[in-house]
Structure prediction request, 368 residues.
Amino acid sequence: MEKRNIEEALKEHLENIGLGYGRSDAMIELLKYNLAQDELEVILGLPPNLPPFEVEEIDIIARRAGIEPEKAGKALEGLAKKGFVYKETTGSGKPGYGFIQWGFGFPQIFFWKGENTSYAKKMAELCAQNYKESNSLDKARGTENAKSFRYLPIEKAVDYTLQGVLPYEQMTGIIERAEVIAVVHCPCRMQRDLLGKRECNHSLENCLKFNDMARFVIEKGIGREITNEEAVKIIKKTEEEGLIHFVDNCQDDVHHNCNCCPCCCWNIYPIKSRKVPRDFIMDTYFLRITEDQECTGCGLCVDACPLEIITMEDGHPVADQSVCIGCGVCLSPCLSGAAKLKRREDKRPPFATFQELHQTQIKEVMHQ
Prediction:
């Protein structure tokens, strides 16, 4: 296939993989920097409109790409070694492949390992250019009725202020139910660091991956396997640093946990700077309230809020509930117990499973 034709074909095809990648010349440059011509061509046969981690057999991929199965198999193995595709055994016992999806490996594979190399810096520059050229934030968030992720309160917030807390509402509950756990470096802070733009001193190796996502990063050598106990310690440390938890927007089989800062992370800064509405990016299930009769007016929660949305009014803190993400970080310094979280009554519960979440998203995308 001619150079110009394959570039346009790749842009179009990538729009239909998962939630899409957004069209940009930087994305094509990134692929060409990393991949051989055969590998670029076989991408055109990789399955569109599938949830993350689902795969198809070589024969189907080869037919869709219009190339011989043997040639497709070699190219797919090359992509797998470079971390650009998931590889799993299908129900028939044959190898299957699927392109890494936005937010589930891309562009994180370049930064999860925490390397500060010329290659990593080049990838950081291309990814930054891709963000400028495409609607990647819109893709990463999910669909209008099925956001990919949800904010999760810190442990103290759910321990002390909520009744009937469910396992999926606590990081410890999610950790306890995970089959495999891995830890990787925060891709947002790493990318900002590589670009010379990181302003914070928050720790880097503290994003947790579970189950299929954990197996992927462990196999590729870009994350390390850890125990449940180690994972709980990492979460405790992130809460001491005032970082914000988010996870997949489902109750069971959670794959992702990131622990975010407002200066570097893709989902916090746009809300803090009022560039997008709070509910545009992720689902928020809790809001901060204050029990005025218990409040001493110390103002510590005002300083603790990562989004800077709490102000003192008549000697008591008031949170802007149109911006509050219910992270619970402001509850940490509250000694009186006046700072509390309440559940949003206008929100349906998270999706039952990871599979249901992503199947719902794909149906919405296909009907747009």
About this structure: The longest strand covers residues 205-210.
